[in-house]
Design brief:
It contains nine helices and 13 strands. With about 300 residues, the protein is an alpha+beta fold.
Length: about 300
């Protein structure tokens, strides 16, 4: 039994179990969750062999159906999804709505909106990319790079990330090893799906995004503590909507407040601070401050030259 179970687990990319006790514990949990009895029987030909089966021979955990309450909750969730605006549409939600008698258009107004721009091409790609990530399938994509040149590459898709009103495919190129690539869905023109599977990445994506603002992180850079001063008119904004989970209010006075964050500086963070104009000042002497000063000086020169 242990051998058969582990064969199935390995086919699904799941680590095998080491002892029979793990399987017996799972059988007990199945019996408790589904309120069924599992019989333990000795083989008639070899008494040393123990066999397990459901008392009801026609029972299956894959064919238990939904309770009335579960069915109502599922319909409620589907109705909510049909009234969302900006969320990428996926075909199986529409099919499920049809099978559950949930109208896709019942005249109801939108009650939830995602502030994300996603075009028709990206809408078509989203479902396929989602499935490719779930099934760990290698894909070939055709997209436009920053110079609007068409590029075709084979990638291992790992993640779909939304940031600043854009969706990104987080992937690794087959030719570049464990180096993350971030491809805007709006730039993707065609996706070719293959049957080739790939091994799970050793890159910790949670760790990658945990100490940055945005999506890009330069290799080899470590988090630094950045202190910044905020004018009184934006203090409430930063308190209610921190720019990073590490944000701390250091001190507060009548005219200003000082906050700190611990992040890896990147271009998204530069743009974020610049968006507040003269309401935010970086106090820490660091690369981020230098970059912002350079951009501000360049902007001043542009305005001076244009007058």
């Amino acid at each position: 039994m242990l051998h058969v179970v582990n064969e199935s687990l390995e086919e699904r990319g799941i680590c095998p179990v080491k002892t029979k006790d793990t399987i017996l514990k799972d059988l007990t949990e199945i019996a408790n969750e589904y309120h069924i009895r599992i019989q333990r029987m000795r083989d008639t030909k070899d008494s040393r062999v123990i066999r397990y089966r459901y008392e009801k021979t026609d029972f299956s955990i894959f064919d238990t159906g939904l309770s009335e309450e579960q069915s109502w909750e599922l319909r409620y969730a589907l109705r909510m999804l049909t009234r969302c605006k900006g969320f990428p549409k996926v075909k199986w939600i529409q099919m499920l709505c049809s099978s559950m008698d949930v109208p896709l258009k019942d005249g109801s107004k939108t009650i939830l909106e995602f502030d994300v721009a996603i075009g028709k091409i990206s809408q078509k790609c989203f479902q396929g990319l989602f499935l490719a990530i779930m099934e760990k399938k290698t894909i070939e994509i055709n997209y436009l790079d920053n110079d609007s040149i068409s590029v075709q590459v084979m990638v291992f898709p790992y993640y779909l990330k939304q940031f600043a009103q854009k969706w990104y495919l987080v992937a690794v190129l087959m030719t570049k090893g464990e180096v993350l690539q971030f491809i805007e869905l709006e730039r993707i023109r065609k996706v070719y799906f293959t049957e080739e599977t790939y091994e799970p990445t050793e890159i910790d994506l949670d760790a990658h995004f945990s100490d940055i603002y945005g999506i890009h992180r330069e290799i080899g850079k470590n988090p630094v503590t950045i202190k910044f001063q905020v004018s009184h008119r934006y203090i409430r904004t930063f308190i209610d909507d921190p720019i990073h989970h590490s944000q701390v209010l250091v001190c507060r006075e009548h005219e200003c407040a000082i906050f700190s964050i611990r992040v890896v500086p990147n271009k998204e963070l530069v743009h974020k601070f610049l968006s507040y104009g003269d309401a935010v000042t970086i106090l820490t002497d660091c690369e981020l401050r230098d970059e912002i000063v350079k951009k501000l000086k360049r902007s001043m020169r542009n305005y001076e030259l244009s007058t």
